Amino acid sequence: MGEKLTTVQYKGNLNEVYRVAEKGVGNACREYVIRTKDDEDPVELARIKFQKGARQEPGSEVGVIDSDLLEIVRDRLKLFQEGEFECTENAMALVHIETAIMWLNRRVEDRIKRDVIGTHNK
């Protein structure tokens, strides 16, 4: 199955997350699987495939990027905060996720400004 990730949530965790591909350029893994924690008959809930290679490089493959996943979680937390499950913990998580998105976007803007977006150039 691959390498099971050690997650921050230890108690009450319903699912397990696995790194299922080798590390690539930049030392990051491209593919992950989320499955139920059932030892006898685990069910694969999601397989996430990240972009492989720089966008403009020959042979690169399209895929999810980190900010896509953060935007999904951001949307869910915003919706919870608009409903009956509003809480301080979700509000704090939302602040930090939005901060993470901001920093990732700053990196993109910097790479655009330096004309290295979509390449392996630093």
What does this structure look like?
With 122 residues, the chain is of the alpha+beta class. It folds into 2 domains: 1-64, no CATH class; 66-116. Helices cover 34% and strands 16% of the residues. The protein has 2 helices and 4 strands, in the order ββββαα. It has helices spanning 66-81, 88-113; strands spanning 3-4, 15-19, 31-36, 44-49. It has a 4-stranded antiparallel β-sheet with strand order 1-2-3-4, with no helix packed on it. Helix 1 packs antiparallel against helix 2. It is flat. The two termini are 33 Å apart. The model has no long low-confidence stretch (mean pLDDT 90).
- What level of helicity do the residues show? 25-40%
Strand content: 15-25%
Question: Low-confidence parts, pLDDT < 50 over ≥5 residues?
Answer: none
Radius of gyration: 17 Å
The counted number of beta strands is 4
Strand order of the largest sheet: 1-2-3-4
Tally the helices.
2
Helix-strand pattern: EEEEHH
Query: Distance N terminus to C terminus?
Result: 33 Å
Q: The biggest beta sheet, please? A: 4 strands, antiparallel
Query: Structural class of the helices, strands and pairings?
Result: alpha+beta
Note the overall shape.
flat
Overall structural domain count? 2
